[in-house]
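Field reference: "sequence" (input) and "structure" (output). Example, MIP18 family-like domain-containing protein:
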Amino acid sequence: MLVRDRMIVLGNRRGFQNSILIHNSFLETEGLSNMRESIAVNDRVADFDEQIVEQLEHIFEPDLGLDVYNLGFIYGIDIDEAGDCEVTMTFSEMGCACSEDVPKAIRESLAKIDGIRQVTTKIVWEPVWQLSMISRVGRITLGINPKGRVR
């Protein structure tokens, strides 16, 4: 069993930052992705999944003060044999103030990963983002009940 601890820095719109230590456990299994199950990925992503998650957890939606990964904004990641990566994502609403900054930050951050050549982002509005898409870590961070459904 491989145990991994991760520090997540939380920001809010006033610029204050808080940190929480997240303790994750998972079985080390060949071919098993560490990516959230809700994110559609191809086989090639497994080679980079920890690095991708780490990068995405440092890109924040400024109004909600949580990263795009734990918010559930990332719907899919596809990496081809040449190392070209496409990230399919959404936002909480159309006209979101960060709709230009966040995709740019994703492209710049993921392009830093050795083996990823270039990154494109594709914004989609279906399925519509819902609070239920927030991860357990995100729910705890935002003070939402981590168990059960968000209504």
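Residues 101-111 form the longest helix (11 residues).
The domain at 34-142 is CATH 3.30.300.130 (GMP Synthetase; Chain A, domain 3).
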